Structures are given as structure tokens and as C-alpha cells.
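User: Fold both of these, please.

Assistant: Here is the first one.
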Amino acid sequence: MTSRRLETAAVAAVALMLVAAGFIFLYAPTDALQGPVQRIFYLHVSSAIAAYGCFAVVLLGGIVYLWKENATADRLARAGALVGLVFTTVTLVMGMIWAKPIWGTFWTWDARLTSTLVLWIIYAGYLMIRRLAEPGRQAARFAAVVGIFGFIDVPVVHFSVTWWRTQHPGPVVINDALPPQMLVAFFVTLTCTLVLAAVMIAIRYRIEVLMDQAAEKVMVAPIVASSEAGTAR
């Protein structure tokens, strides 16, 4: 995707998030029990689902790289990991903001919260490996393994509220616990957030391509200089 198309996509994604904000604050009714703080739900859950999608990109990218050592798959995995970490951070922070007035505390070692924090740590570790390890095939393969096995925590996070007794609310969407207006606001926000995540991955992928090209030039430059020096002799 060209820079111009990425710019257009980014503007469209921001516009969609403004539309989502309109549905959250102007269309959806105020919750009778939780009050205005309930509006965090729409972006909180949408960000979590977007993070799942990003980590699925890391999973598929890692599998393809281990299978064919495809550079495109590796770059997609790197891009997905970073964007997924951003959305996981948003999920955790917004959940903590919601928890303070509802639970009386920002954090509790609930199964959902704890498994989400573990997910954040796994993919933060993935990115740390990519940053600290010597660039090349070995680092890419090791990171791919981390990304693949790290995805095991995604279903743990998602199903934690049904597998264990938790303080975190259950799956209100699939249980038809939301009135129609809230449901519409949620699906609009979810759609807009997924578009934003896809655009962010595309932008980050482009950055990864440019970074790889720059690294290749740095590696090739000494070889070319040495060759030219030998020719001069």
C-alpha cells in the first residue's frame, strides 16, 4: 500500500472512530445501574477483540515464517504484535478506569484481569526479543515460536469468565443482556475499532519494510566499499 493510500486510510479510520464516539456518547442510553462509566464498555471490549485479531496475525505470520521463511509474514507478525500490544494496553487501562467506581479498586487479581496482563507480558516479551536479538533468521524463528505459543493465552483470556468464577462481568453481548441501542452502539464501535487496528497494522507493516531496507543497506555498504577498494588496488 502506497503512502498516499495509507494516509487516506488513516484519515478514514480516525473519522470512523469519531462516528463510534458519537454512538457511544450521543446514541447509546446511560446505564441505569452503572451510570456514565458504563460507556467505557464499548471501547474496552472492542479493543480487547481488536487485540485478539492482532495476535491472530502474529500467530499466522509466525506459522508461515516457520514454514516458508517468508519475510512478508515475519513483518506482518511484528506489526501485529506491536498494534496488539497497544490495544491490550487500552483494554487494561480502560478496564481499570471502569473498575475504580464499580469495584472500589483499580485492580484485583481476577482471572480475566490476570490472564490479560499475562497476555500483555507475552507480547511485550515478543517485541523485546525482536529489539534486543541480533536481526536475522534465528531471531525471527525464535520470535515466531513465542508468538505462536503466546496465542494460547488468547482463548484463556476470552473464556476465563466462563471457565472460572470471576469478579469480571460475564459475556453480556452473547447473552442478550444489552438493550437494542446499546447493542448497535457496541457493534458500530467494534467495527470502527477493527478498521483502525487493520490500518495501524498496515502502517506499521510499511514501517517494518522501510526498517528492513535500511538495515540491508547498512549491511551491504561495507561489502560494497571493500569491493571498490579491492578494485582500486
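And the second sequence with its predicted structure:
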Amino acid sequence: MTVEVKYVVIREGEEKMSFTSKKDADAYDKMLDMADVLGDWLGNAPVELNDAAREGMALWLAEQKDTLSTILKSGKLASSATEAQVETESTDGDAVDITSATKRVKAA
């Protein structure tokens, strides 16, 4: 018999993703926190966004935080940053940055 440890990120009673390492689970949870803050901030934007578009944009911006930070600091898009970005589809269809979560397991 094998024992497998899984770290599960749960938001508002809903299981979002499972990981095999605490570090990856914490990073994903932090990204979701950032997406929540960005979603609230985008709600104040001068452009009308419906709730789904605002949530999707906030999640995408949080996933792309390194690229966004580079753009904000330098005013330029680094070509190597876009090529190095690795994405996959999560179980709910949202794109997830797995560069820091290489040992992600599919959510149950």
C-alpha cells in the first residue's frame, strides 16, 4: 500500500487544484489571492467588463505577473519572457502557469 500526500487549494468551499508539494500549493493560493485583488481593481476600470471577463482577466494577469512586472518596470515586452511561459489547461478550463508547479496533480 502506498501513501500519497496531496495539498489541496480550496476557495469558498470549492476545490480548485491539488498539488504534490506544499510550496506549489502555496504559490497557487497566492496567485489566486492576487487574482482576487486584481479583479476588485479592474472593477474600478474606466472600461465596462462583465463579471466573467473581469475574473478571467484578473486570473490571467495574476498568472502573467512576471511578464507584467517586466513590462511595468521597463516599458517593454521581453521576447524571452513570452517564449518561456508554459501553460496548460486546468480541470475547470482556466489556463494555469505551471512553471512553478511542475508536480501538479489533477484535482479530484
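The CA atoms of residues 27 and 53 lie 23 Å apart.
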